Amino acid sequence: MIEAKEVSVFIGRRRIVADVAFTARPGEVTAIVGPNGSGKTTLLKALSGELPYEGRIAVNGRDLAAMKPAEAASLRAVLPQATSLAFPFTVREIVRLGLLGGRSGALAGESERLPERALAKVDLDGFAGRFYQELSGGEQQRVQLARVLCQVWAPVLEGVPRYLLLDEPVSSLDIRHQLTIMDIARDFARRGGGVVAVLHDLNLTAMYADHIHVMQGGRQAASGAPQEVLVDPLLEKVFGCRLRVGAVPPSGAPFVLPQSAAVS
Amino acid sequence: MADQSIAGPSGMTRLARGGEDGDRAARARLAIVLLAVMLGAAMLFSLTSGASDASAWAVLRDWVSGAVADGSATDMRTRVIIQDIRLPRVVMGVLVGASLAVSGAVMQGLFRNPLADPGLIGISAGASLGAVAVIVLGATMLAPLVALLGPMALPLAAFVGGLVATLILYRIATRQGRTSVATMLLAGIALAALAMALTGVLVYMADDRQLRDLTFWQLGSLAGATWQKIGTAGPVIVAALAATPFLARGLNALALGEATAGHLGIPVQRLKYVAIISVSAAVGAAVAVSGGIGFVGIVVPHLLRLAIGPDNRYLLPASALFGAAMLLVADAVCRTIVAPAELPIGIITAAVGGPFFLWILLRKRGIVDL
Q: Residue A209's Cα: distance from chain center in Å?
């Protein structure tokens, strides 16, 4: 479990995240949603140990602040929003960097083929020999996800759950690959790992998240299951525009959307 | 070696990629073996060529057969030329070439910039100030120092100058335990300007003979190589170079940015610290004994990156071998092209390195604009 208590993050003198409590359980996909500038990414950066913070964050009961980089790397992998690359590495060389810590959890002998398997998972079969800089933005994002998957290939290692921290993992992907990537995240959780994802798409969030954490102005606006959180008044308050949450009739009865009407 | 890459990044051959699977490790290992052979050849070439007709082969034969002991050895003059003039020069060329090239590769990895160079973090400017101070003030203000240290005063002053400049920059760029490489780079430019201004004052004060001395020092040369200098600078260089293989994995991760390197489990701050200290020691020692030899640090890693890719596990050792070989060949040219006089080696490396650097810039525009 990743557990944050009264966490505040300052960038310069500005407090970007204020007194936030946050929990992500293994076996679940936890989504962080909220408008631009609400502190979602900053909260994720605190949870990953990238930014210094006030308060307490524990991963599987261990204090994050006391962990060495290598120990943290064996418990969680982080997909940043964007990654710029300094030198012309091939796709395979980038994905292999995920194996740097040597705690992928793959079976002996499996490690050498892991980059290819991770690439196949993100639908980039046959891309290993390409130069990273030659790929499109969406392809680059999936290469980075393949690298992240290599780092924590086994969602549970030696009985300890591990975590994927994903910052807008589907922001530059087409609809098919959005679903591919979210399926990977859900599968990781089903196999005992934990997933924390910053997401913008409320529909994807509703489809995949087990738990939603809503941020507004650096504070936690709500936290709970999708049906508790994704409700009209809260969304209107947080996002500042009138939204209507739709729901399929429970019996599975057919329904007709008025927008589909075309008067001839 | 770079031939197949001249077509530019988009035209890089499958060979440069390492084939369909994108794994260039086997290719890189082969390149390292070839470079080792090349360095061996360059050492032999350097040992056997020179202004005098002394035969290195005769001396080598004596070493192998043990002829020195039984009195049938080659004459004394030949032995002295080979053992006490050419051989230390070859050893120093290897040490200096390797340390400049490896330092360049490490700096480029650390600053995540293929155009970075040890000169960027003030080492060269600081070392230059130290050396010029001894040349110009050696007979007056710094006379006690020169009397105490003798011929070692100049290299030591250069080494200390480089190290002090680096430490000042490190202090400026480090806040709350984190070093900002961007701040270090900008502060380096400011500090280099200051050191150059002070150097300029000294140059202004210098007399004609001193001017000639410091011009030669600034252009760099392996001509002053002695076993004594190797005994002083060698251990520093070897120790610093020995630290760099432990940086390779961290520098690879750093190509993805500092945050991601940290997420991958790299202790980024320690990496920066070790990289900066070993580079400034290696370059400080190299500059101290050989003066300002430019462009090796940029040209060598760049050529190798085109040939074997940017993986530092292979790039660093390959840079050491290639840098050493390149400097030995350049030095052999300096010694023979205007024999019996000598050109400063900095002229050769800069004459080749300058145009090459421009070529990189022109070629890289495509990638920079991507």
A: 10
Q: Band of the pLDDT at B16, cuts 50, 70, 90?
A: very low
Residue type, B32: I
Helix extents (H) in B206-246: 208-219, 227-243
The DSSP code sequence of B286-315 is HHHHH----SHHHHHHHHHHHHH-S-HHHH
For chain A, how many residues are written?
264
The verdict on B268 touching A (C-beta cutoff 8 Å) is: yes
The alpha carbon of residue B38 and the mean position of all alpha carbons in its chain are separated, in whole angstroms, by 18
Quick one: closest CA in B to A148, which residue? B264
Residue A45: give the domain boundaries: 2-82+161-260
**Interface predicted TM-score of the whole assembly (ipTM), two decimals:** 0.90
Domain housing B9 = 3-368
Q: Which residues from chain B sit within 8 angstroms of residue A70, using beta carbons?
A: 265, 267
Number of domains in chain A: 1
Number of independent structural domains in chain B: 1
Predicted local confidence at residue B31, as pLDDT: 94
* pTM (predicted TM-score): 0.87
Mutate to test the interface with B, among A93, A96, A111 (most CBs of B within 10 A): A93
| Cα Dmax for chain B | 69
| Residue range B220-269, pLDDT digits in tens | 888 888 898 898 889 999 999 999 999 999 999 999 999 999 999 999 99
Tell me how far apart the 2 most distant CA atoms of chain A are, in Å. 68
User: How far is the CA of B146 from the CAs of B137, B179, B211, B215, B221, in angstroms?
Assistant: 9, 36, 18, 20, 21
* Cβ contact, residue pair B20, A126, below 8 Å: yes
What CA–CA distance (Å, rounded) separates B89 from B95?
A: 10
Within a domain: A170: yes
CATH number, position A169: 3.40.50.300
Test B264 with A92 for CB contact under 8 angstroms: no
* Identity of the residue numbered B208: D
Query: By CB neighbour count within 10 A (0-12 exposed, 13-18 middle, 19+ buried), where does A81 fall?
Result: middle
Assign residue B133 the CATH number of its domain. Answer: 1.10.3470.10
A107 belongs to a structural domain? no
For residue B180, the chain A residues in CB contact (below 8 A) are: none
CA distances from B266 to A115, A196, A199, A252, B253 (A): 20, 22, 27, 52, 8
CA distance readout (Å), B332 to A32, B47, B51, B58, B224:
65, 9, 10, 20, 14
The two structure tokens encoding residue B268: 């980024």
Q: Distances from the Cα of B295 to the Cαs of B65, B217, B350, in angstroms?
A: 41, 16, 6
Q: Do B265 and A101 touch (CB under 8 A)?
A: yes
**A149 in any annotated domain:** no
What is the spatial distance between Cα A248 and Cα A3, in angstroms, rounded to a whole number?
Answer: 34
